[in-house]
Batch of 4 targets.
Target 1
Amino acid sequence: MERQFRINWSAIVEEAKQRRKSQKLTQQRLGDLAGVSTPTISHFEGGERDIQLSTVTNILGVLGMLDERVLVFNDSHAHYDPMRMVALFKGQDGDKTIPCAISGEALDDHFGGDNKDKLKVFKANRERIEHEARRKYLADLVESDGSVLIKTMDL
């Protein structure tokens, strides 16, 4: 599945300039902190697009504009809770454990789980399900307790 991503470059540059100013950083100081030259900061703030991505991420990182969250699934343990009708699994974001679940209905509707062992269906489709959990987590589409619940309408 091919997706198009759009970047609003002028909005990123403008936000970066505003953050630099609100943090009372000169272009020179921002350059020092980001490990780039003052002329590079000036070119970036002028909207120049021919700048290395690593340079841009260094600048945005210093300004607190990067989302550094990562959700990984190192724990292979999962189980199906028949009372709640969900398959439960866990992700990790650094030291933080993120509880994740997919509804039995989603397993039925999107993974052929009708009349099958839901845990086996989950395990057979784990990679795709984890991908969806990661997408929801990074988009801040989490439950009030910070957990991720994948429902049939999410897929």
Target 2
Amino acid sequence: MNSTHIGKLSEGTIEMKEVRKSLNINLAGRREHLFFNFIEFCFFSHSERECMLFFGSARAMHPFVIVPYILMAEVIFFRGWRYFVKLKGQVVGILAVHERMEALFINSLAVSPECRRLGIATHILIYAEELAMRLRRKRLELSVLKRNIPAQKLYKRFGFAKKEEKMWSFVLSKEV
């Protein structure tokens, strides 16, 4: 896998039905973890006018931010699982989760900017919910930035409710 696989689909516009049939979610191997972190950085740094990155514009700080970001993600995701979401063999999304006492916590969920609004994030959430049930967790939880309104709308439609409010984010929860 290389960086040319990040969200570039060669066949142009794809229908939602076709997307659901063609999506695969695969556990990332140990050797793919740094690549996973790089893809996560790319998806967030190229989204919604870069407002999804907590620290500001990636372009202005790119050389000083990307390596520490990738290494920080390695520490944060260390005890969890990372999944690549592929459409026709190309990475279009990522999912990182870890287990808590009674919940499965979604550390990161991102979809390539070119592939948004095709139902990919919904498909990822369904997969995460099924995973939580298999692991016998009572809830699915995640954190979302307060300024990430599109994600908040998606999570609300999917049944998440506000559990806690922090300075920059909301912690949302859903019973499974």
Target 3
Amino acid sequence: MMAANVAAEAPRPELPTKIKAARFGLAILTALLSINLWTGAPIFSIWVGSRVQGGTGLTMTAVGVVIGVLAVTVTLLVMALIRVESAYKFLSGDPVDKRRTAPWMRSLRDERPELAVKRPMTGFEKALTASVVLAIVAFEAWFFFFAGSSIG
């Protein structure tokens, strides 16, 4: 067990500048994709629904179009994020997982502290986390300071 931890803590060799630049570009692409996952996809879906919507009131056709376009755009963005993550892992020298296990499908044995393997967050995970935190802070700022009261 100790040998696995020592191997995980071994220092990595210095990466070439081109690979560092590519990883930085992938981190920026991750941030853009994840921000669009929360903002761009819903706004685009509503825009498409507004184009389908006629001059009359709300129709179920427009609602269906919004839901359909949202499902497609979110699926495409998630697929793009998965590809960017695998490219980032490849450039970082991390093993690329061929098979993913959802957190709720993992064994509870993995939760035991003695079996836990501590690993730092990757750049991909940092960029994704930062964009989500930024989106939450921006929403809270808008909601509390700029949205005004809906009560009247």
Target 4
Amino acid sequence: MTRPRSVSLLAAFVLLTGCSRSDSGSTNPGPFTDPGETIRVQQGAEFQIRLESNATTGYQWVLADSLRGPVRLVGSEYVAPAQQNPPAAGAGGHERWTFRAASPGEAVISLVYARPWEKPISGDTARFRVVVR
């Protein structure tokens, strides 16, 4: 007797999703938005951090500390809000920061939301822990 196809598909789905969530070498897909979530990536992979931002205020996310360890900055960009009809004046978008996992190890990416020309730079902060395997 053969098993129904739906049972086999369900078993395969459960097996695949269970394996993808294990902590033994798996990676999170990103983009990452929660500083409380550890970012786990494979060496050589690129990953993104996405933070809410509003360029019309003069505030932007800046690196609070220089990067040390296994993570390298690839680039960052401001992404304006999606087109609305009518466009909302002063609507915020987000910033997308792209990093590369250069070598195995751990790092902390510290970002601060500030007006870079105001010294000392201070404002809301976001700290992301990164584990590179």
